[in-house]
Amino acid sequence: MNIPFPDLTPAMPEVIMTSAAVLLLMLDLCFKNKALLALAGVITAGAVLYFLPVSMGETFGGMFISDRYSLYFKFIFMVNLILTILISIKYFQKQDEETGEHFSLLLFATSGMMIMASAKDLIVLYLGLELMALSTYVMAGLRRQNIKSNEAALKYFLLGAFSSALLLYGISLLYGMTTTTDIYAIADHINEIGSTHAFTAAMVLIISAFAFKIAAVPFHMWAPDVYEGAPSPVTAFMSVGPKAAGFAVMGRVLFVAFSEVQADWTAILIGISIATMAAGNILALVQTNIKRMLAYSSVAHAGYALIGIIAGTDEGLNAMMAYMMIYAFMNIGAFAIVILMNKGKEISDYEGLSKERPVAALLMLIFMFSLTGIPPTAGFIGKFNIFLAAVEAGYAWLVIIAVIFSAMSAYYYLRVVRNMYMREAKAPVIITRSLTLDFALLITAVMVVLIGILPSIIVR
Amino acid sequence: MLNYVLIPLLPLAAFAVNILFSNAIGRRAHLIALPAVAGSFLLSVYALIGVQAGTIINQDIYSWIVSGSFKASIGFLIDQLTVVMLIVVTSISLLVHIYSVGYMHDDDGYARFFSYLSLFTFSMLMLVMSNNLLQLYFGWEAVGLCSYLLIGFWYEKKSAADAGKKAFIVNRFGDFGFALGILLIFVSLGSVHYADIFSGVGALQGRTINIAGFNFDLITLIALLLFCGAVGKSAQMPLHVWLPDAMEGPTPVSALIHAATMVTAGVFMIARFNPVFTLSDTAMAVVAIVGASTSLFAATIALVQNDIKRIIAYSTVSQLGYMVLACGVGAFGAGVFHLFTHAYFKALLFLGAGSVMHAMAGNVDIQKMGGLKKYMPATYWTFLLASLSIAGVPGFAGFFSKDEILWLAYNNGALGKVLWASGTLVAALTAFYSFRIIFLAFHGKFRGTAEEEHHLHESPKVITIPLILLAVGAVSAGWIGIPAAFGGANHFAEFLAPVVGHSAVTASHTEEMMVVALSIAAALGGIGMAYLFYSVKPCAPLILAGMFRKVYRLLWNKYYIDEIYDAILVRPSKWAASYLLVRVTDGRIIEGIVNGVPSMIKAFGDRLRKLQSGNLQHYAFGMVAGLFVILTVIFIAVSR
Fold first, then answer.
1. Is A179 exposed, middle or buried (0-12, 13-18, 19+ CB in 10 A)?
2. Rg of chain A, C-alpha, whole Å
3. Cross-chain residue pair B623–A218, CB shorter than 8 Å
4. If both were cysteines, with which of A211, A217, A383, A409 could A275 make a disulfide (CB 3.0 to 4.6 Å apart)?
5. Which of B219, B215, B191, B189 is nearest to B279 (CA)?
6. Which of B435, B302, B307, B314 has the alpha carbon at shortest distance from B360?
7. Residue B72: what are its φ and ψ, rounded to 5°?
8. How many angstroms from the chain centroid is the CA of residue A372?
């Protein structure tokens, strides 16, 4: 039997990323200076970005596809990766822990996400998902001395395994009925023989597994505990990357494989979306820990982004993708401020920041405004596009609900702003600046404002 | 294109730098603000040259949001009307910036002051350069905000903070109507761009709109709603009350915002929307009558006031009335011409008053002044030139623009004759109160204390040089619009004609001469009376005030308008607010909702939080339960 060596061009970004991850793991043994590893990571991401446009096409016998859809998501992953590396370096030096594998794991997780975005086959999708998931489980527990970090990793791992089981069960049901795991072939099958209860069950299982990755209700419960326990840069990474990857596969599987039963999954997602926005916003309201608040806010944002998929149109899908990009900038920006503060776990720690550190306070203000969705920030544009697509698709009532919850979110985001600007500091605010962290803050803040003023640069 | 974009952008950049680094910059704020506004001025001159050569720009720079027929964009319309405003705004702003270097020298909020000035200049430029209503509205509100910030600049002073609040609240009334007008235009024409509005508005003729069972002419309604905005911003009756109080702000602010630029935005807007206004005779008549009555009304109040800045403020209200009157009789060009000349002589009057206050250690009572001519000659002579100009003495700027308004009003049918008569009377009153200041403050003997007299001095060069430059404008700004009757070619009206059109002239040449003669007589008569009253027979005013005590008291109390508003608006609303709202609605209903909903949500959140036990089994159970709920619901839905 002669198996031809597959054409690697479409998968070149993944090849680079994976090789670099392995290489980094080995370099970690030889080099004391972890900043070097970070630099290598950034260079890798740069190489990937360079290869992205030329990697269009299918390969591995049609199991892997590189198209505009996946490219956009890979772009988001690169943004996520680079920003995370930039905010990581000083953080781990400050914690004084040997964590060279952090950078390698970041790259492995990112490869997993990229494979997910490019998966044309459910098996490939699962492989990518597990690569991403396993790496993030470990990263959540990187602070080995910290009991919360350990707990976060264990919880994330067990619940993640559970959600993987749901996904696999769904996939096996589908395979049993259609004898294929190819997303496009499954769509043909459903076209021919119509939907059955078993199909619906498989769909629900798969949606549930994806809902776990994007932290949607009721599969979100891991998020607050894990976000709180994981090291802050990892939390920033996790709140954006796996979420975007989850949306990427959700969009492709639902729009392609289950396009015939759109009414069914729309109904499910509407329920999930409303529950997610409700729980995320209401629970964020009562938090005092800023990382937990941001965790619930991240849950709420998943609810908004789901509306883009619910709209069921190309505009909706585009709006969802743009939202993920915007979310990457504003959320990592907010986490960068959290990392900047020596003592910044509690929302009350931000009291009087504007007097002590006016620039840091201003940046945090920008991120909080953007997360709330106040113009002219990027967050407003993201929400506006999603809501517009949904209104045009006939979901005005859902948009009204979303706007109400969005208004509610102003309460907890602006509470941070109020603390920064209208309260006096109880204790002197100490911050640890570093060149890379400053750089990350500069990028995120500039992008948040720039996208708010010139939305056309990301909406393609 | 870049040269146009930079006009508003330079002051914006100056604002950003000054506000962000105010601590580091401190007393050097003008080093950033001044070059920026000077650059804007030079670019405006360049734009003027371009327009004269025939380059009219109407271009969207960038679209923020495009959704269906709605387009939120920033675009520039650079035509004859715009460049006139550009020159006025940037030149006055530049001179006021220079003046402020001296005037605000010892103020703690030096950097803050300059950053606000820059922000104001930016907003005003965005307003006049806009090619659509949305951007105009943005600029409109932004200048309002700057005005509020600058009136209340010395916010430690209660009267200043109150005046800022008053300006803001009174303008809400006008802006509410204005916003409705913009919405109505968008609903009826589907666009907020000037070009679309002006080409489409003709088709709306004869259309009516039914509100609460009454039919209103659509165009009239649109025009009147837009006019509401102008009434607020340009301080016309009955919303004029905020402008005199606005004098609590630093004097350079009074000159820039509350005399030369922002308050004329209403006039500019009416002139800009002349294609809409001219389609409704009713709206035009309302505009003309409001303008004429405001003008007369404010001039009478100015006769008896003693606060130098307040006299000039009422004079501003009165002159704005003139401009609005001009627009109302279709003489948009004349209105803008008066806006142009008024900007220079009125800014000069304010800055001169500021110079006087500087010497008088902040005292503004003209009864306590006298003989200042001797101590501050530069201030005196420039102030005199401005007064001659506003009084309408032939040859000075104010004469030509005022005369053109009166003449074109005269040509506007029977109503026009009445408006003209009232306008001529106002001209006499204006001359009188302007020279009342001259004779009381600058001539005669000093009436203050010896200590005050000892302190009298001419202001430094950084203050007098802008005065002298403005004086040049106050004298000569009118020369570009000398009408044909005086051998000129009325360049100004010709220049603006492509935007605002020509006004029909029906009356004969002899009548024009009669109108001119009467207005000159009014000006000279007013000055003569002031001379008689305040220089020759200083006891005459007292006798007169005694004879007409009631009239005097009425004028002194500004027709009790503030008291009336207080009685019919402020106090009832306060009463309603404290009794109905606070006790009943607020205490029971709103507080119930406001406190109830969050506490309900909070209680719910706390309950929900219990689910987040931290216990792994609970989480897994949550997932399974969620899965089953979804499966059950979807199966029920599918099998139906």
1. exposed
2. 21
3. yes
4. A217
5. B219
6. B307
7. -100, 110
8. 18
Distances in Å between the Cα of B597 and the Cα atoms of A176, A281, B273, B606 are 50, 14, 46, 14
pLDDT of residue A372: 92
Q: Give the separation between CA A23 and CA A21, rounded to whole angstroms.
A: 5
Helices (H), B504-539: 509-531
List, run by run, the mean pLDDT of 10-residue segments along chain A (460 residues). 76 87 84 74 80 81 88 91 88 70 89 93 94 92 84 91 93 90 89 83 92 90 89 91 94 90 89 92 87 92 94 90 93 92 84 84 92 89 91 90 90 88 80 86 92 76
Domain boundaries, chain A: 9-459
How far is residue B133's CA from residue B122's CA, in Å, rounded to a whole number?
A: 17
Diameter over CA atoms, chain B: 104
Alpha-carbon distance B385 to B380, whole Å? 9
Q: For residue A458, give the amino acid letter.
A: I
Q: Which residue of A has its CA nearest to B602?
A: A286
Nearest chain B residue to A269, by CA? B630
Which residues lie closer than 8 Å to B424 by C-beta, 6 or more apart? B406, B518, B519, B522
Q: Where are the domains of chain B?
A: 325-347+356-556, 562-639
Q: What are phi and psi of A57, to 5 degrees?
A: 135, 180
- Chain B CB contacts of A222 under 8 Å are 619
What whole-number distance in Å separates Cα of residue A327 and Cα of residue A283?
20
Instruction: Indicate left, alpha or beta for B93 from its phi (over 0: left) and psi (-120 to 50: alpha).
Output: alpha
Angle at B57 (CA atoms; ends B53, B58), nearest 5 degrees: 155
Residue B422 has pLDDT above 80, yes or no: yes
Backbone angles phi, psi at B142, to 5 degrees: -65, -40
Residues 6+ apart with CB under 8 A from B562: B241
Give the gyration radius of chain B's Cα atoms.
28
- Residue A360, both tokens: 């840091």
Q: At what angle do helices B332-359 and B265-272 cross, to 10 degrees?
A: 170
Q: Is the ipTM of this complex over 0.90?
A: no
Whether pTM exceeds 0.90: no
Of A225, A267, A286, the CB nearest to B609: A286
Predicted local confidence at residue B639, as pLDDT: 67
Chain A neighbors of B598, CB-CB under 8 A? 285, 411
Q: Measured between CB atoms, which of B62, B605, B619 is closest to A222? A: B619
Are B609 and A222 a contacting pair at CB < 8 A? Answer: no
Which residues of chain A make contact with B633, given a CB cutoff of 8 A? 271
Chain A residues touching B64 at Cβ < 8 A? 376, 453, 455
CB pairs under 8 A between A and B: 88
Q: Residue A447's Cα: distance from chain center in Å?
A: 17
Closest CA to A273 of A301, A315, A243, A245: A301
